[in-house]
Amino acid sequence: MCNLYRMSKNIDEVAKWFSANNAATGANFSTEVYPGYPGAVIANGEVRSMIWGFPLVLKSKKTGKPLKPKPVNNARTDKLDSYMWRYSFEERRCLLPLTAWAEAEGTKGSMTRTWLAVPDADVFAVAAIWRDSDEWGPAYSMVMTDAAGDAAFVHTRMPVILNPGDYDTWQNGAPEDAKALCTAWAGDLTINRTDEPWFRKSAQ
After folding, report:
1. Cα 133 from chain centre
2. pLDDT above 80 (res 172)
3. What is this structure's pTM?
């Protein structure tokens, strides 16, 4: 599952790229986005700031009191009809712009970051869904599918990368038409295996 992605373009560039209004003026985004932190999404024709991950409230086994919410940042395509995702998928689909996403590779305790991206694409979009939450306000989750091609040598799953011609269908089409887009990317990918430690602390 993807727990880190990179967005190296500024909000004005993203708005122009996706022909969207910038509703995130003044928002502070890190180049590397982690679960539970703000990221930019395109929803209803606007670039908006939302938290990456739907809040999942757990209770302490010892006290029974609520714990700090956990961000559930990936939605599997085979689970989109489940209670947690269903209404967001049917009613609130959005685009998540990024320049690359990362997966962990290597042995436990010494995993490193492997970055994957669409070749020659300054920015590309993956499928996402969103909802309002009491805990964090608007929150989004990345839609994941079974990996194929080169990506399958890195991880068993990958984000649903959308062709530009499918952006409108994903956001505004019928649920069954949007679901048909939830397949592995058929094009090429660039894979950059690095020696960056996977568990490097967030810059935020």
Report:
1. 17
2. yes
3. 0.94
